[in-house]
Amino acid sequence: MGINSRQEVDDLIKARYTLLYVVSSEERRVEDSLKSLAIEREFRLEAWCITQGFSGLANAPSPRDVRDPLKALEHIVGAEGKAVYILRDFHPFFQEPAIVRKLRDIASAFKRTKKTVIILSPVQKVPAELEKELSILDWDLPNRRDLEGLMKEMMPNVPEANRAAIQDDRAVQDKIIEAALGLTAVEAENVFAKSVVRTKTFDIPTILDEKKHIIRKSGILEYQEAAEKLGDVGGLEILKDWLQKRKHAFTSRARDFGLPLPKGILLIGVPGCGKSLTAKTIGALWQMPLLRLDVGKIFGGLVGSSEENIRKVLKTSEAIAPAVLWLDELEKGFSGTGSSNMSDGGTTSRVFGSFVTWLQEKTTPVFVIATANNVHQLPPELLRKGRFDEIFFVDLPARDERRSIFEIHIKKKGRDPAQFDLDKLTDASIEFSGAEIEQAVVAALYEAFDAGIELNTEGLLASIREIVPLAVTMKENIDNMREWAKTRARVASLSGPVARAKAAAAAAQHGGGGQSAFRKLDV
Q1: Residue closest to 280 by CA, chosen among 197, 338, 223
Q2: How do residues 358-375 score in pLDDT, each as one tens digit?
Q3: Given 1.10.10.60, 3.40.50.300, 3.20.20.140, 3.30.70.360, which CATH number is that of 230-394?
Q4: Which residues face 327 on adjacent strands?
Q5: Which CATH fold would you assign to the domain 5-138?
């Protein structure tokens, strides 16, 4: 169990840390927690803001109308005794050299006193001059116990019959609390109230719907609806089996058995072959929230905003855990890490460093599924062992897989696959990706509708003949990816060129005949 934010602040104050930076949008909740700490530890607690000056929160004198930020710092320096001062939304004043210099003076001078300054802000913006002086702390979002307390406070507003049903069923209470994980205390309180007003109970769909809107406010994370199922993915038997076997790996039963938490997988391969579709199915398969991260949106226009964005993304993912975090087309976001110092002042490298460190060391049940079309653009650090549980290569679908994909898409369009010559369609679509097969079905459907006839095999064959597959236009790139995957990735399906090459190499290695898959050295 990790140390909570209140305990962390207490330890830092005891250790004579003089300048702290607490990042949280929950001003009231943070101050209430610090107020209880001040009463318990018997120190003076005062808060300052530009609109009101100083106000006493605990063991403190009457308010002081000191609104100028520099004069506020001078007042803190001149004050006597054991005290903690909260500076609300103080980060905009870091643009003033005198303010930054004064804070540096305080950091040095307060080492000999029992005073601590806490900058409380919803965003992290630290000038370079203060990076070594400030200790930064992300205040924890409400945990299960906090949310349970908020739910109980709201319980008297629930009609008696519904209230009894909730209070008598611990499983229902757990589901309500889990649905609200990742929300601030104010957000949770509001959505509980909204749910009670709308449904006369704590309605989980209402809570989740509000949660989706709140997550989307950031413009970076997107809450994905679990619409697709694993049966909608044609082929990829090995990958599907791997996912099925880890369906219950996040339960307490799995922990008791000694299983480690699954970290994540990296799907690399030909575009349009089911990588993104597979990612979309995991949330429904494991019954966990699926959060999609557009890596490109992390890199904001303001200096420091990119680092702040990745911090928020990782923090939100952990707060909502257990959850699935999906990073689509990873190479587009992190392909420039090598030249980052010259092109963007090192921003991409810092963001990438934060992400891979978190990926390696995270202990929360956040499963990461990353997809990439071009492995050669990925930084080598990402492919190192320990970052992901497995790296899967997704190849073009083989014959049986193409047949399965045709069945899936014909059935999705409300037709009976048995009414079509699937063997003809399969043979005509050699080297087609799943996306190209889907497009062939859609195009044939348009043609049939325009002609006033029913969709048939001949119409599908005509549509197939019109498509030039990616395997033709990007043959060299696909061959390079296959060559890379032979020794560096696990195949996602039993068939395909890479799977056959691996099987042949294994047979030669273990059967004693043929050329060994590995070069033997004469030492």
Answers
A1: 223
A2: 988 888 889 999 998 888
A3: 3.40.50.300
A4: 293, 370
A5: Rossmann fold (3.40.50)
